[in-house]
């Protein structure tokens, strides 16, 4: 069988002066994605968000065999730890993946910046260490280089991507290609769905309690429909929240445990889509050092954590009330205490704690989207490449063949 040619680049921002001059008519981000520009809601990002339930359903239906095979190969290497690496949303996904794997399999798992993955001089023990490269495009140069270096150094390497025949799938020893191709937001949930399947299979091989894993499997099957509920039943509420917080100058997203990567992801979406500074941080850290910068023009978004950390969230909401920082709470649909004291409430269908991130990440995407839609002339797709200076800046941020 002839091997498919490796795609060396997924996104290209290397345009000429006339393209930059016309950025207000045709933002260069659309050109990089090869999409027709849109000028009003619904933007492409909105469509992509609403594709997620169907794509996650497709992943859950088509990937179990891949997950079982990959779990067997990982187990054959006597895994002592699993390292996830990526940048941007893939870095946050790696953190979420580490929580999932450790929680369901007991294998110590970590996430690292791509520049920190083991290489020839790292002194790391190759035997029993699994390195997983995460890149939606499959061509993020930092991830590709580090996975290739890890493989050459004797580590077992995997690639979790949204495009096949890329430099990352070529560099790694095995791969999972999530459905949907390269998009604006669905790469997070489609790959996370597979990570749940992989963790279940690994847990079964390792003899973890079967009933617990069966409960996760059963709850996972309900996730696509619950995702539809999260997106469709509260769309008007998301729009109202976005309009209300649009005048704010910054956002802070406190939470704990496996929800912390979701907070980082929401911060990234606020920065990419709504173009104002945002930060996800631990509730404990927030309460011990973050109160002083809160103000009436800084919005606080609290993602309800597990029961063990719930009281920290209650204290944080009371703090926002004292300093009059507008507060949004994202909580389970049976929540009473947090919901009763927040300014706005987004309710999420109840599921197992391990599965919460795949549902909570949806309001983490759509609230920043509507915040930008509420801005006069706002465009959550473009990442400001509708302005010539930002369009030119993407040439610096994304050099040719870097993504």
Strand and helix layout:
Elements: H1 17-21, H2 28-33, H3 44-62, H4 64-76, E1 81-85, H5 89-105, E2 109-112, E3 129-135, H6 141-152, E4 156-161, H7 167-171, E5 174-177, H8 187-205, H9 210-232, H10 235-245, E6 250-255, H11 260-274, E7 278-282, H12 283-289, E8 298-303, H13 310-323, E9 327-332, H14 337-341, E10 344-348, H15 356-373, H16 388-397
Parallel strand pairs: 1-2, 1-3, 3-4, 4-5, 6-7, 6-8, 8-9, 9-10
Helix pairs in contact: 3-8, 3-9, 4-8, 5-8, 5-11, 8-9, 9-15, 10-15, 11-15, 12-13
Structure in words:
This protein has 403 residues and is α/β, with parallel strands linked by helices. It has 16 helices and ten strands. The protein has a five-stranded parallel beta sheet, with helices on both faces. The protein is globular, with a radius of gyration of 21 Å. The chain starts with 16 loop residues before the first helix and ends in a 6-residue tail after the last helix.
